[in-house]
Design brief:
The chain is of the alpha+beta class. The chain contains eleven helices and four strands, in the order H-H-E-H-H-E-H-H-E-H-E-H-H-H-H. Strands 1-2-4-3 form a four-stranded antiparallel beta sheet, with helices on both faces.
């Protein structure tokens, strides 16, 4: 029950005290990520712990200008990593296909599960966290910044720190109701008044846009969402342009 309570109570934390994260706690958070379930036990991800302050500040700019990233006590980038297995196959002289979009989709799932393990572990230690989805933007620049090899994609970033009192007291944004999220044996189709009520309950809270048009402009059609899609398409093109089947010339 303690784990379920922590999942229910956990909210994104974007303001931190000056208290550092101990080396033991950092190690425990990262080790928890490695305990996550993974496809075929391949662990199709790698972690980058960002310690350089200048790099943190650059990430804060590249990831949609979010200054709190640079103030976090621990920054972890989780990269979906197909390179290590592929390089190992080639080193053994095996005739294998190049990694493809399906492999990357599987790797991104592995990566996200590992990140969630880290976030839950941090919560259990009293350490707040925030996911940074914008790490998927600006793919080409991040490849240069992080020295990423081919077939590696920055899929998830989490920032950590001890929450301020204001963050501890902040109300967690509402989630959709169980009845509006769960279908039995098939997809749950929702439309009309029920759909409007469902979305209204999600965005109609103090401090948030109160209509779908404003929300769409802020979240669905803003510059960051356009760049996100361009960046992911660039990564997919990199995979598809060089994809080969076993026995094909590379």
């Amino acid at each position: 029950m303690a784990t379920i309570d922590e999942l229910r109570d956990r909210r994104s934390v974007r303001a931190y005290t000056d208290e550092p994260i101990s080396a033991d706690d950092e190690r425990a958070i990262i080790q928890a990520a490695f305990e996550a379930p993974t496809a075929g036990n391949q662990q199709l991800y790698s972690l980058i712990v960002v310690r350089d302050q200048a790099l943190k500040e650059r990430l804060a700019v590249v990831c949609d200008n979010q200054p709190f990233i640079a103030r976090a006590k621990l920054v972890i980038i989780y990269v979906a990593d197909l390179s290590r297995w592929y390089d190992a196959f080639l080193a053994e002289g095996l005739d294998v296909r190049t990694p493809g979009p399906g492999d990357m989709a599987l790797a991104v799932v592995d990566t996200a599960i590992a990140a969630q393990n880290a976030v839950v572990a941090a919560e259990s230690l009293g350490i707040g966290s925030c996911y940074i989805g914008d790490i998927m933007e600006n793919y080409e620049e991040l490849v240069r910044m992080l020295d990423l090899p081919p077939y590696v994609f920055p899929a998830v970033m989490t920032v950590f720190g001890h929450p301020t009192q204001q963050q501890l007291e902040r109300t967690k944004p509402p989630r959709f109701a169980y009845e509006d999220m769960v279908g039995e044996n098939s997809y749950l189709h929702i439309s009309g008044d029920r759909l409007s009520k469902m979305m209204g309950a999600k965005i109609g809270v103090p401090g948030r846009d109160r209509n779908l048009e404003a929300f769409a402009k802020r979240k669905w059609s803003d510059d960051f969402s356009v760049e996100l899609n361009r960046s992911v398409c660039a990564m997919i093109r990199t995979l598809t342009d060089y994809y080969t089947e076993p026995g094909d010339a590379r």
